Amino acid sequence: QVQLVESGGGLVQPGGSLRLSCAASGSIFNIYDMGWYRQAPGKQRELVAGISRDGRENYVDSVKGRFTISRDNVKDTVYLQMYSLKPDDTAVYYCNAYVATAVGSGIAQYWGQGTQVSVSS
Q1: CB atoms < 10 A from the CB of 26, how many?
Q2: For residues 91 and 39, is the Cβ–Cβ distance under 8 A?
């Protein structure tokens, strides 16, 4: 089994910053793509940012220039640094990872439990 545990959410004023972290643990052979999704009330879950194992990044247009995704392959951790936060960024943020648990096991998708980010004055 693989667990993803997020941390770093909270309440911040517009224009503020937050850094989310997501640590993977358990039976891990290799972690491939990792990413952050978010879901606001009444809306579908959307991909915010993704990063491949070799560091290629992609972002949804609404966060480009404000958010930065990074990862530490030694610590099996992915981060999301968020700057210039807006009320529209308010959502539950979920960590996501594609993990192989053993040689030849195939790759499965795992999710964290979510962390609330609220942007309000």
Answers
A1: 12
A2: yes
Does an H or E element contain 26, and which?
Answer: strand 18-26
43 three-state secondary structure? coil
End-to-end Cα, the chain, rounded Å: 40
Which pair of tokens denotes residue 40? 């606001």
Compute the mean pLDDT over every residue in the chain, rounded to the nearest whole number: 96
Structure confidence by residue, pLDDT tens digits, 72-84? 999 999 999 999 9
Residue 35 CA from chain centroid, whole number: 5
Q: Rounded to whole angstroms, how far apart are CA atoms 5 and 54?
A: 22
The answer to whether residues 18 and 85 touch, using CB atoms and an 8 Å cutoff, is yes
